[in-house]
């Protein structure tokens, strides 16, 4: 829902309010980046009374392991414990990354249990797939200048990143000079603001991809 403009968010709020007043048996369920709550409130001041919010973050190590190992076990295939832990660590709790590792390991491994040697071989395929089909496509959503901003963020290491530090890494002395690029990237869902004066990537491992493939020019 973070991709909706203010007018659309306002319309949703008004519709939900009308539904509530009429006592209709209708529920509205939406999903978006964390700043969606603030954007809804900006669209309609009474939005906080219309919705309840639940945060869906990265999977815990236990949940990630269950998604990987449990799914394979249901089909009669086991994982070597050390290999399972390594996959969970590399996937960083992101469900799609776990799916990619699980799919490529399933296709590559010739016997059970799936071991570290299988992971060593499949990792190359996973990283290439993510670079082309996940990180790469998201990076191409940004304009040339916005791509420079993303690279500047990544050059600072682990997030979240102070917007002033990103501006300096970008090459300007005033963060206001790049605020339009920052806001555009937020609107595109590539970055978000975890708190005032900070930005971070919306998906894990994006910074690592940029440092390896799109360093600051």
How do the strands and helices of this protein lay out in sequence?
Layout: H1 6-22, H2 36-43, H3 61-74, H4 81-91, H5 95-108, H6 116-140, H7 144-154, E1 161-162, H8 163-170, H9 179-187, E2 191-192, E3 198-201, H10 206-213
Antiparallel strand pairs: 1-3, 2-3
Give the class from helix and strand content and strand pairing: mainly alpha
CATH class of the largest domain: Mainly Alpha
In the CATH hierarchy, the architecture of the largest domain is: Orthogonal Bundle
Low-confidence stretches: none
What gyration radius follows from the Cα positions, in whole Å? 21 Å
Give the terminus-to-terminus CA distance: 33 Å
Largest sheet: 3 strands, antiparallel
What number of structural domains do the residues give? 3
What's the total number of strands?
Answer: 3
Taken from the alpha-carbon principal axes, the silhouette is flat
Q: Treating each run of at least 4 consecutive H or I residues as one helix, how many helices? A: 10
Percent of residues in β-strands: under 5%
Spell the H/E element sequence: HHHHHHHEHHEEH
Identify the strand order in the major beta sheet.
1-3-2
CATH fold description of the largest domain: Helicase, Ruva Protein, domain 3
